[in-house]
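job 3f2a | input accepted
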Amino acid sequence: MWAGWRGEYVAGIGEAPVGGCPLCGAIDPTGPQAGWIIHRGELATVILNAFPYNNGHLLVLVNRHVAGLDAVTEEEAAELWRLVRTAHRAILAAYEPDGANIGANLGTAAGAGVPDHLHLHVLPRWAADTSFVTSVAGMRVLPETLDSAAARLRAAWPADTDADTDTDTDADIAAGTPGEAEGP
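job 3f2a | predicted structure (184 res):
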C-alpha cells in the first residue's frame, strides 16, 4: 500500500499552514480545491475532507474564520446545522451506509487537524468498515477518488438547501426515504 500524500500531512501536524488557513483556502470557489466543494451557502460550506477517514467524508464549516462554537453567530449556527443535516441525507442517498458519524474535534488536544477554523465532520460508516489492513497496518483503503466522491455527493445533494423546508423525520432518514415526510 502506498499513501505518499500522508507523509506530507503527518510531517506538517502542528505547523502553521503556508499561506494561511487550509480550510479558508479549501472553500475558495476559485482555489485549487474548488472541485471538492459540495455546497456553498451564504454563511457555511460543505466540502470533501482532503484526508478522509473513508469515502464520502465531508466537512461542514462556517465561511468566516472562527475557532469555536462561541464565536459563531446564531445565523451561522443555524446554517451550519442545517447543512450538517443535509450532508447526512446526501451521504445516506449516495452511499447507503449502515450508520454515520457526525462530530467536531474542538482544539488540538481533541484531535483537530485545523483547530482555528470551526468545522464538523459528517461521514458514512459501515458495519465492517474496519478491515484487516486498518487493524494490522493502521491505514485505510479508499476505493474512490475525491473527484468521484464529489460528483457522487453533488448528484445526491438536495436541490433546495437554502430554503427552510427541512421536514424529514429521523425515521424517514433512517429508512432512506428523505423528502417523503409530511410537513407540520
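job 3f2a | The longest strand covers residues 119-125.
job 3f2a | closed
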